[in-house]
From TrEMBL:
Transmembrane segments: none annotated. This is 2,5-dichloro-2,5-cyclohexadiene-1,4-diol dehydrogenase. Belongs to the short-chain dehydrogenases/reductases (SDR) family. Keywords: Lipid metabolism, NAD, Oxidoreductase, Steroid metabolism. The keyword Translocase does not apply. The lineage of its organism: Bacteria, Pseudomonadati, Pseudomonadota, Betaproteobacteria, Burkholderiales. It comes from Pseudaquabacterium pictum. The keyword Lipid metabolism applies. GO terms for molecular function: oxidoreductase activity. InterPro entries: NAD(P)-bd_dom_sf, SDR_fam. GO terms for biological process: steroid metabolic process.
Amino acid sequence: MAQRLQGKVAVITGAASGIGEAAVELFVAEGAQVLAADKNAEAGAALADRLGPAVHFMPCDVTDCAQLKAAIDGAAAHFGGLDILFSNAGAGGTAAGVEAFDPASWDFTQALLLRSVAAGTAYAVPHMRRRGGGAMVNTSSVSALQAGYAPLCYSVAKAGVLHYTKVAATELSALRIRINAIVPGFIATRIFGGLMQMDHDQSGALAAQIAQRSGTANPIGRSGLPQDIAEAALFLASDAAGFITGTHLTVDGGLTIGPRHSWDPNVAGPMTDALGLSPEQLRALRAQRAQHPVQPS
């Protein structure tokens, strides 16, 4: 079976852990050469050592545009070109709500989650233009679609990623550059620990707990894993998605298909509450209806 990224060169940001690490591993397995960019130099170097010459690591803080440009230019210099950019780096940023607005924290979070996507896109275009086209994939979030999944500033930034992706596609299509976004649901990574101000080890332990316990959080009945998002990124980056641009792929285990009561019979919904029924009483009514269906008149 042909490797899906054979001969392609990719840049992946946030590459040293979680979704980024899983994407590096998968892209290499599918034939790509990868510039892995991450501000964690120790973990990034270990990743490159483990995966061999197909991976070149460069330290990169994506909030520093000069470092981000250097990483993208570095991929072209090291591997001879650039075909794919997976803008994945991120963290929880400020957890402040509306009244606790702090300009510096807001600006940092937006720079990390949104400006880095725009900057990386701009820096990658000249290299992809020389290759006759390319593919870009941006990591957004279910918090871009609905309230209640993440803090205010994070959610706004991730919504910006979705709209940036759509608008940028209108310019990039003429260059045969595709750009799409992934909307992950609850994925077992260190980002949740970061939102709670945990250190690296504590965040890792929390991610492991989420992987074990979050199967009931969505209709699909299992935890979301970094590999799930890596597979989506691989598809969008590959020629199999050659007719797809300016849109997003939601990978959330069904989390956003509807409120919990729509798929979990143990949770009361608005109608149940209005009738004063418990979930148990509602299940009993459904069972009774199943035994005695209404006959057509």
